[in-house]
Design goal:
This protein is an alpha/beta fold and 354 residues long. It has 8 helices and 15 strands. It has helices at residues 141-153, 172-181, 193-201, 217-224, 238-247, 275-279, 296-308, 325-331; strands spanning 5-13, 26-34, 44-52, 82-92, 102-108, 112-115, 122-124, 161-164, 185-190, 207-210, 229-234, 248-256, 283-286, 316-320, 340-344. Strand 14 (316-320), helix 8 and strand 15 form a beta-alpha-beta unit. Helix 1 (141-153) crosses helix 2 (172-181) and helix 4 packs across helix 5 (238-247). The radius of gyration is 21 Å and the shape is globular. The two termini are 18 Å apart.
Length: 354
């Protein structure tokens, strides 16, 4: 049978990045892809519908350093970058996937990807009545991050005091809502008045503050937590982490999810209050959501009823078209997104025709 070739637009890394990335570090190029997977192959051809912009992707833009291993492999200059996305199967040689199936997982930043599905890295979408875009966030990797970090690592108890940095982002907004469902007192920090208002008025946080307007982060935390913090969900690092340690209660827990304030610095900021970890018996644990992907069905059973009951809300910041992807990704590191940043590659959810 004659192979049908389709054009395939891609987002390509120009070269390794030092300092803050810019849109010019990512190029839009075009190649081709076969409409059919090879006979006998277990690969799957998918049409990408949504792509997830995530802060960890900054670390994949840097030159590999054997002395400082990243949590994921560096992108290859001249090749398309990759991340998590939502897609629809166009052709499949894999016994578990058929044409028309929807899935989320690791894909290239391109219109079409050829993938070999991996258990606990690619997931078939069963709740198709919920917005597909949610599988880049609430029902995808960020949702698993919030669930694993809060419940597995922080071990929350009703009535505890919880602080979330980068609280209006993809993960932080969920951690705050999970904490409220537990009956905790929750405060978040964000970088604009709009985001602070969002936390207090839409996402149900008890309080929130704009860290850019606070001259003294220690004082801001003391104002919000007069008796201290039991749980800190860490997304930013640096000066915020230093101030939080001062305000942690004995036997407090810190889940180190990310440290976005440090990703673009050639010399990271120091943290000076580490001795208090010993005196206060504070537990700090870093984690990667992928370590918990085997619990995805458990997470889905937990969160889907809350979504359907309207007890969890989710804010998305949507960029339209693959051409908008470089600006959307780079914007994460300047705080431009409000909520979960994602890119719509295609709105063709019904037929995926070409």
């Amino acid at each position: 049978m004659e192979t049908v070739v389709m054009s395939n637009k891609q987002v390509v890394l120009r070269d390794y990045v030092t300092g803050f990335p810019s849109e010019s570090d990512l190029l839009i190029t075009s190649t081709t892809v076969d409409r059919k997977v090879p006979a006998g192959s277990k690969t799957v051809l998918v049409k990408n519908l949504y792509l997830s912009c995530d802060p960890y992707m900054r670390n994949r833009m840097r030159k590999p350093d054997p002395s400082s291993p990243a949590t994921a492999q560096s992108f290859i200059p001249g090749k398309p970058i990759s991340g998590f996305g939502v897609c629809k199967v166009m052709d499949s040689g894999h016994p578990d996937y058929k044409e028309g199936d929807l899935l989320w997982g690791a894909v290239g930043w391109e219109e079409y990807s050829v993938i070999t599905p991996i258990p606990n890295l690619h997931f078939k979408i069963h709740h198709t009545d919920l917005p597909l875009s949610h599988y880049t966030g609430l029902l995808g990797m960020p949702g698993m991050t919030a669930y694993a970090g809060f419940y597995e690592i922080c071990c929350p108890k009703k009535g505890e005091s919880v602080f979330v940095s980068a609280a209006s982002g993809a993960v932080g907004q969920l951690v705050g809502q999970f904490a409220k469902l537990m009956g905790c007192y929750v405060v978040g920090s964000a970088g604009t008045k709009e985001k602070v208002d969002l936390l207090k008025n839409k996402l149900g946080f008890d309080d929130a503050f704009n860290y850019k307007e606070e001259k003294d982060l220690n004082a801001a935390l003391k104002r919000c937590f007069p008796v201290g913090i039991d749980i800190y969900f860490e997304n930013v690092g640096g000066k915020m982490l230093d101030a939080v340690i001062l305000n942690m209660r004995p036997h407090g827990r810190i889940a180190a999810c990310g440290m976005i304030s440090q990703y673009n610095l050639q010399i990271p900021e120091g943290v000076y209050n580490l001795s208090l970890i010993t005196y206060k018996r504070i537990r700090i644990q870093g984690f990667n959501a992928i370590d918990y992907f085997h619990k995805y069905s458990e997470f889905s059973e937990f969160v889907v009823p809350y979504i359907r009951q309207g007890k969890i809300t989710y804010v998305e910041d949507v960029a339209d078209g693959l051409e908008s992807a470089p600006a959307a990704l780079v914007g994460l590191f300047h705080g431009k997104n409000v909520g979960k940043q994602l890119v719509v590659v295609s709105r063709d959810h019904e037929s995926c025709s070409v």
